[in-house]
Automatic annotation (TrEMBL):
Protein name, per record: ER-bound oxygenase mpaB/mpaB'/Rubber oxygenase catalytic domain-containing protein
Region of interest (Disordered), residue spans: 254-305
Classification via InterPro entries: MPAB (IPR046366), MPAB/Lcp_cat_dom (IPR018713)
Domain ER-bound oxygenase mpaB/mpaB'/Rubber oxygenase catalytic intervals: 58-231
GO terms of molecular function: oxidoreductase activity
Length: 305
């Protein structure tokens, strides 16, 4: 199989009808490392929104179990992508996600925004650092894939075109990326999580490197000091050098979706695990009422009032 045979396969498919196959090839064979890194930063990006970081801070999960929250999110999303959102494991993963979100008062716009980052942040990352340009079918397939995932999560008013959803994302960030103490709190926990994957002597450099990868809007929303300009330049040069080298690598013959090489929380995953084994615990008893989703009985009383 030639280096560009998978790209030619993608070009021959229909981005709407075949969106799952295209997304699986792109994220599981052509750019798995890039998708992983981009989705890490996509989630990080959502913590710049005070309404999102406030909820995360109130649950205490990022303070107490940041690694598990990261692993649960990554594995649940991988289950849907690897097996399809309508497969047995995909539906099981969606149930876990919907059950977790259903415990909290999360606005539809916040859900829409998080969904949009899963589409456009990997596209932007690969545009800058990918070993080849993304085909337009890959970009559109990501949109159609997450549109279907979003519908199954009960997210309403998903923009009906790729450009419209991009415009929603950009407008949302311009309006909602503002500093708050909870942004900084969750941001620091997340930087600490990233640094914790490396030996102790390397962690200060990792913390600096993460800051060097953040844009000005994110830095302001987190209240982080910018890293020296050379840090971001060095990181970008390294990623582009990696991309240049990968052009000469043989293509990946099998997808790595749903088969992580290692996992901090669930050793050996997916062997011996089901998606239902993942997910956050119920909300803490001291969660403020305004962050707690009303029970069905309470919601009925509200609707009747």
């Amino acid at each position: 199989m030639g280096r560009f045979d998978l790209a030619r396969r993608i070009a021959a498919l229909d981005p709407e009808k075949d969106h799952l196959e295209i997304y699986q090839i792109s994220s599981g064979q052509e750019f798995p490392w890039d998708y992983t890194r981009a989705l890490e930063f996509a989630l990080f990006r959502t913590y710049c929104v005070p309404s999102i970081s406030k909820l995360l801070a109130a649950t205490g999960e990022f303070r107490d179990r940041a690694q598990r929250r990261y692993d649960d999110t990554a594995l649940l999303m991988a289950e849907m992508a690897a097996h399809g959102y309508d497969s047995d494991r995909g539906r099981e993963a969606l149930k876990v996600v919907n059950r977790a979100h259903g415990n909290y008062a999360i606005s539809n716009d916040d859900m829409l925004y998080v969904l949009s980052t899963f589409i456009y942040d990997p596209i932007d990352w690969i545009t800058r650092y990918g070993w080849r340009p993304l085909h337009s079918n890959e970009k559109l397939a990501a949109y159609f894939y997450y549109r279907e995932v979003g519908r199954r999560m009960g997210i309403k008013d998903i923009p009906q075109t790729f450009p419209d959803f991009r415009n929603f994302k950009d407008s949302y960030e311009e309006k909602h990326f503002v500093y708050s103490d909870t942004n900084r709190e969750i941001g620091e926990y997340t930087v600490g999580l990233f640094a914790g994957w490396f030996p102790g002597f390397a962690r200060p450099a990792v913390r600096l490197g993460v800051r060097g990868m953040l844009d000005d809007r994110m830095l302001r929303a987190f209240g982080f000091e910018p890293a020296p300009a050379w840090v971001g330049a060095l990181a970008g040069a390294g990623l582009k050098a990696r991309a240049g080298a990968l052009r000469f690598f043989p293509p990946r013959r099998e997808s790595v979706l749903g088969r992580p090489k290692s996992n901090h929380t669930y050793p050996g995953y997916p062997t011996g695990y089901r998606p239902s084994d993942l997910g956050a615990p119920p909300p803490p008893d001291d969660l403020p009422e305004e962050l707690r989703r009303p029970s069905r009985q309470d919601q009925g009383n509200i609707d009747m009032a």
